[in-house]
Structure formats: structure tokens, C-alpha cells
Amino acid sequence: xxxxRDSVDTITDQEAAALDAHWRAAxxxxxxxxxxxxxxxxxxxxxxxxxxxxxxxHWGTSPGLNLVYTHLNRIxxxxxxxxxxxxxxxxxxxxxxxxxxxxxxxxxxxxxxxRDTEGMERLFRQFSFPGGxxxxxxxETPGSIHEGGExxxxxxxxxxxxxxxxxxxxxxxxGDGEAETGPLAASWHSNKFLDPVHDGAVLPILHLNGYxxxxxxxxxxxxxxxxxxxMRGLGxxxxxxxxxxPVTVHRAMAAAMDTAVDKIRAVQHAARHGxxxxxARWPVIVLRTPKGWTGPVEVDGLPVEGTWRAHQVPLPxxxxxxxxxxxxxxxxxxxxxxxxxxxxxxxxxxxxxxxxEGERRLGATPYANGGRMLRTLPVPALEPYAVPVDKPxxxxxxxxxxxxxMLERVMADTAQRRDFRxxxxxxxxSNRLQAVxxxxxxxxxxxxxxxxxxxxxxxxxxxxxxEHTCQGWLEGYLLTGRHGLFSCYEAFVHIVDSMVNQHVKxxxxxxxxxxxxxxxxxxxxxxSHVWRQDHNGFSHQDPGFVDHILNKSPEVVxxxxxxxxxxxxxxxxxxxxxxxYVNVVVAGKxxxxxxxxxxxxxxxxxxxxxxxxxxxxxNGDREPDVVLACAGDVxxxxxxxxxxxxxxHLPNLVFRVVNVVxxxxxxxxxxxxxxxxxxxxxxxxxxxxxxxxxYHGYPWLIHRLAxxxxxxxHLHVRGYKESGTTTTPFDMVVRNDLDRYRLVMDVIDxxxxxxxxxxxxxxxxxxxxxxxxxxxxxHGDDLPEVANWTWSS
Length: 793
Known about the structure:
- The chain has 25 helices and 23 strands.
- By secondary structure, it is an alpha/beta fold.
């Protein structure tokens, strides 16, 4: 049975036959990839040795994806429309590879996989095979920007790709399993942020084939009217297509596609030429087809087509079971490959009748190779935004507020070209970046009230209280050739841990593909960080995203902890210009001391690790008695305060102060491109002196990065150790033993020659900690000697 609420016959019998031929060819190639490694056109009876020894892949979703690909081809060709497609169903790789091969882009990308019998055999053999390609859509797949190995992010990627691409239509196939995820559910609301004047359009195609890997799907089982109401409640105009009869489904799908594109063009015309400012109701296609459509109806007496059994490999024992082998051959021959491919294996003219040409082909669109379209970001000179530093530690600024001024200039300088956006979950002003509103408001297409501030139909600041959606938007934006920055509270960026995993893997693989051009880096600014979440409390205190990132591919990931405003400017200048990295920058929004001038900050950031001679007491050639190291703004402040105490209480102690701004410099050069050779590391940290290291995050990360170094047995790290609450700023560091008094005690405990001579000083430090404990409980604020401290040396 076939249903379509909006079915108007828009194709001729000849067109319908051509669409069906293309679809059958794609289905044949999809099944062939799962099973065959020889005899690709069934020129002889199928033999067991022609079957792959390990059957991997996913058949269930492939026929539906092939149907969408076929009908997108028709739309592209008939309407000269630029289209990018996001393939959401996780393991739909066979379908997208099949269609890429049919249209010729796969052969253009990989010339050894020719569009003939020999190339077809290579296409089949390489799929899910050692040395071949993955079973899901991946960087190796021409025309792709979305990793199919994880579900939930397709729609956010689609909307990110459409932003500031006014000529582009982004089709997004959403599997009904994927539609059950939280990130996908939030992504439906992206239509409230899409500007029909300056942005392209997104056409969601909700593909309901009824099942996940072993269970029914929610949206496929609720009544169709209820689903229709859900889509309308989300702000879409649903077009329903469904059934199991190919003839009528092709006609219904063609009609739905035509109706959808007509609606999209009408919305854009009204906004661009008619001054229409109401939020658009964009179309969505709800496509219902059987899981594993056209595959085996029944296997071993059990139903397969239209059930969860079709999800992966419908005939699992083809090599061992002659009945399965015969059934596979019958299945493959049902597509009539002799009518779809000529004797040389090339697709017939009828199969290719609906396929567009050149860069309009889905596998060849430059939008899916965004580095080809990337323009250099106009990052301004930093001097107008730098803070003056005559002497270190005498003045204070809010680093992110200083950065906001520079980002406003970037936003203004990209106003015409529209290829830079700032993303964040409702935190731009909270994170002190509100200066950007001087150049662009916040994107918003819904109702506006007089009490609202900074909302704009054409805004390029993207705020939604969903870290998943912000991440997905930004990834789609970057992968299609633009620039951006994601600002987030440090504790809550963990929400996108699995998403950044996929992006890192994407970049890692893309770097090995010469045809993929480098894209702008994914830049995180993590602020409202652990040490200044004293007011929000324990739930907002988690610095572990850095640990997560540094587990990933070293050629891709970078982590920076600028200690003040000018170093943040220098780091921002670097990461905004960089390509093919994931850069994590951790910087506070609260007032912190200014340590370095702009020139000093540039030099320090270029080194990544530097000895701050002005802060230490070295004055000769001999090694220091102890090294005080720090990474992060609050740890830097505590180390400098400890250094001040050491100067006053232990004037004969020789100590060195080292600041680390690029955390990966601590790694060996053999493990990370930024890593320091041993000779350089030893020169900075020594090989045998105690090193007291005050670190922003979990202390064991520093041990992990430096465990191969000669000085590691003498390395003592202080950092966050999950002791948090709502308290005063200084109490946060005291609770975690990162405070200046504890650091002085650590020096006394670890410098052998101090011993009993420093016992009085150690006792004074312990007393100060006790006095702090009593003071904050009586006064509710930090000790005056802490709150009013400045660097005076």
C-alpha cells in the first residue's frame, strides 16, 4: 500500500522508469558490497568462494537511502539546484558509495575504482574489508560531511551547513532510530534560527522503516496523525510518502520533492524580495518504506523484509549454507543487472538519465569539501585590544571581555562575506563576550518582545540552550568552508564529548586524503571555569574536558591555558587562523592579573612553555633549589603569590618560575608535534630538582604527560581533586590544596636543605590556612591579605 497526502503526479512514465532503473542499480550495488568479492555482474552462477568471508554492513536502511539519492538527483538536474545531503542513518555506507560510483564521482576521486566491471569488483571488495573503506558514510566518501558512526547529529550538521549559504539546499535523511536521540530532538528547533534571506534551506527527510537493530522505533509506531501533529508543532509542514510498491512510491516521492522545493523557493522569495519577516514553516518529508525493502522476504522460515532482521545482513550464512547462497543469487538477479549495466559493467543510459553533471552531483559538490571554499579569516592586529602592562601583577582585567573586543572586530569585518559565527548555549554575555553584539545580534526568527535584547533576524551569534546543537551547527559550518568559535562553561562542554570524538576522527582521516582540503579548526573557548564557579557550586566544577581531548589523535588536538588577557589574545589569534585542529582554550572571565605585555605574550605563546625570570630568584649558573610550575590563570596567580611568600620568608632559597601555556609541550616530541625534546624539557624543568606544579585541572594528567621525563620522580602536582562546593574563590583552591600557603609548604617538604630551618615558616603557612577557614565562616569573604594581594616584587 502507498500513501501520500500531497501526491500530485509530476513525472512521466519514461521518467518513472528511469528513476526506478537508477534505484534498482543502486540497490544491486549496495547488496553487492555487503556480499561479493568476485563475479560482480553474475556473469556465471554464484559460488561460495566469491562471497566475502566476513559479512559486514547494513542492508536495512540502504533501499530507502537509495530512493532519496535517486530523487535528489532528479531535483538537482531539473532545477539546477545546489544540494548537499547529510546521511543520518548510521551505517548507510553501501547506498551512498553505490550512488557515488553510479554518478562517476567515486571513480574521479579514486581512479582505480573504475566505472566498469573491474571497478565494480573493486567497489564490492573494498567495502568493510581490510585495507578498504568503513561500513558507514565517512571522510573517504565523496560528498559527505557527516560521520555515520554515531547517531543524533545529522540535523544540526545540516542546519550548520545551510547557515550563510543562501543558494544551498541541504537535504537531511534522519533515520527513525536516530530520531529517538536527545540531540536530534533538540535539533528540530534549528528552524527558529534559519534566516531565509541570508541562509540556505534544510529539507529534513524523516525515514521511517520501522526498526532499530532489534526493536521497533517510536516515531514509526505512533499514529500517523500524531506524528503529523508533532511535525507541525515543531514548526514544519509535513509531506507524507510511504508504501512498498515501487511504481507508486516513485511517483509520490517525486511529487513530494517538487512540492517541498516549491515551498522552499516561495519562502525564500517572499523573504528576499517581498520583505516577509515571519518565521517560515519549512517542509519536511516523512518517508515510510519497509526495512530491507526489495531484499529477502523470508529466510529460514522467518520474516525478514519489513522487520528488524533486515537491519544488517539478511542472509548470514551464504558461504556455508547452499540454500542461503541460492537465495542470495535469486535476490541479486531480481534487480535484472543485465538491464542496468552494459556488457562492460558501465551503467546504462537509462540508469544515468536522472544523474546531474559536474559539481552539481551529490558526490562532487564543493560544499562537502569545505576547505576548497575556505577564505582566510580577517583577524585584526592585536595591539588595539591589548591591555597595558608596565609591571606584572599590578593591574587586573577580565580576559574574555578583552577577547570580546577583538571578536567584535572579526564579526564586523566578516559582515559582508558572512563566514564567521560565534556559537554558545545561552552564555555569550555571561562569558563576557557581549561586545560582539556591537557587530551582530543573536540569530532569532521567532516572536520578539520589547524586553528582548540583541535579537536579530540576520544575527550571526548562535545561542540555544543545547550544547549538542551548538556543536552540530559549528561542525556543519566549518565542514562547509567557514570559521567559528564555540564558547561554553567548562563543566558543561562534556555534553559534547562523543561529538568531538567524531570530529577529531574525521580530521584525522581527512588529513590522509589528499583530495580533502584543510578546513578551519574547531575552536573551543572554555570559561566560567572550575576555580571561579565558587558561586554556582560543585555541579559547575569540572575541568576534565582537557583530559578527554588529550586522549585523542595528537596531530589534531591542541590545549592552551593562557594565564592573562594578552596571552588569551595571542592564543586566539593563533587558533582562529589555524586549520584542521581541535583547539581547546581555557580562560577565565573574572578579573585576573595582567602578567605579560602584548609582545611578551606573543613570545611566550610561541614558546608554549617559558621561564618567568622576573618571578624567580635565580641569579647565577647553578640550578635552582626548586621549580615552581603553573598552567592556568588561577594556578599562575597562586604560584606567583607563593613566590612572593618565599621571597619574604625564605630569602636564601633559589627558585625558578615556569609557566605553561601550551599543555602539549609537556609531552615528548615523539608523541606530539608540539612536544619538547628531552634536552629542552630538562633545561627548563631540570632533571633532578623538585618541581611543584600547580595545574588548572586534574593533577594526574600532568603526570601522564610527563611520565617519561627524567624529572618525573621529583614532580609533585597540585590541581583539582573533586573537592568543591558553594564557597569563596580562595576557599576553592584551599579545598583542593592548590593555594599559595600549601605550595610554600610543598616547597619546604621537598627541598632537602630547608629541613628544620624552615619549620617556623611552614607552621606560619599552616596557621594561615586555619585562619582562612575561620575567617570565611565568620565574614563570608576571603582574607584581606588574599583578596587585596598584588605582585610587589
